[in-house]
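Weekly modeling sync, notes
Attendees: S.R. (lead), two postdocs, one rotation student

Agenda item 3: backlog of single-chain predictions. S.R. asked that every request posted to the team notebook include the full sequence so nobody has to chase files. The rotation student volunteered to paste the first one in as an example of the format we agreed on. Action items at the bottom.

Example entry:
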Amino acid sequence: MSALELTAGFIPLVDAAPLVVAREIGFAEEEGLSLSLVRAPSWSMLRDMLVLGQIEAAHMLAPVPVAMALGLGGLSDRIDVLSVLSVNGNVVGVSTALAAQMRAAGHSPSAFNDAGATGRALIGLGRPLRIGVPFPFSMHAELLYYWLGALGYAAPQALDVRTFPPPLMAEAIAADEIDAFCVGEPWGSIAVENGSGELILPTAAIRAFAPEKVLAVRHSWTETEPEITGRLMRAVWKAGRWLGRAENRITAAELLQRPEYLGVSPEVIDRALTGTLVTARHAPEQRVPGFLEFFGGGATFPWKSQGAWIAAQLAARLGLERGAAVNAAKSVFRTDLYRQHLAGTGAEMPGASEKLEGALDAPTAAASGTGKLMLLPDRFFDGTIFDPGASS
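Predicted structure, as returned to the notebook:
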């Protein structure tokens, strides 16, 4: 019997790896799928391709399905989150000129994993900031606003926020179109390689376990194609499990470096996979625990509380009713489909579908079907704990 053809879109980022591995290592084929991958030039175009039915699934920014559920962004279709593809993986960088100003003011590059010290040093320069993000509805934007806002900066009001596709971020800072950026790898490292930027903070230092990309599909498609939905979810989950094994990182980097995927050297890709970043030319490497997680700590489970946090941030900033926004976000994080289609694969099934966000300072055992689920630290840098059931 011939394999069923299925097309998924992606943006050239290291965290697109689960889809690439599902295709190239054969997990899609195991599920009877002939998976084609389409590289999109921008997040807006990828979202539109999914909504318009040009592709069946997408590597998607976690806040996009939430924003669409809240009627934001101009498109009204419902997008469902089937699973989380990756946790963390972004960097904050600045121009080399701005980095020099920070050092001259006394900021030490050794504070790379210290969100408080780095944020205060950036704010302390007392100058306006033009900052690049890949999309208005993104974890990049949400974490930037959260970070700077918690330190007393009027974010986003006082920021000049500009949108650039990830592969163009290094060019934007080289062309002096922005002073700083928050972007997924390898594009922050490319700015370092080009000599146009320096990295000052991994976003994992702002929030230790932030859902970054999700496996997204149209709600109407998963309703009409439940069996194919299950095949796709299992193939991608197996890919995440494969990526979670350290012995596979070299192979993963070699796959991702191909021109049809990222088209950059495997040495640069490996920095994200190992959490060992080069922050500036001639600077020593910086080790970032949990820099990019594909599988450990229940990373693939689409916790409803993760969607709720995004909705609460958007509601507070845009003047939406919080309770309705949180409930809408929870509805598109499909823990029901995760439990249904991944049963029997070995996937850990948490006893609950939502949790306090930011409450864990250390690996912590959680109730699950096997009793072996160990959640990883998820703290916010300022110690805030988000309760998805709270009314305000």
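Discussion: group reviewed the output briefly. The mean pLDDT is 96.
Action items: rotation student to repeat for the remaining queue; S.R. to check formatting next week.
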